[in-house]
Amino acid sequence: MASRRAGEKLILDGLVRVNGRIVQVLGTKIDPNRDEVIVDGKIVRAFKKVYIALNKPPGCVCSRQDEHDRPTVYDLLPKEWQIVHSVGRLDFNSEGLIFLTNDGQFSCA
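The structure assignment produced for this chain is given below.
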């Protein structure tokens, strides 16, 4: 939906409602399975967390885009999995296991 800073601005601007009430406190906790969250009039749904273990072949980078136009690990993924980011990275010529996820807590652990 938004980055942390952009989300804070949405809250401060009074554009976020939880269960019909305007959120006034930054860091308000919700239960995505029970609470209804509306941002700027649109319902926000929780997303499914995706975890991918990929055997990165040599000759591709772990970046989403490469300034030298080399292949990336994202070129190996189907379009519906493009919402992930790599957890760490391997060098261009390295081969091995790399994790990709959209779970921010997992990637920081």
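Interim note for the steering committee: The chain has two helices and seven strands. Strands lie at 16-18, 21-22, 37-39, 42-44, 51-56, 85-87, 96-101.
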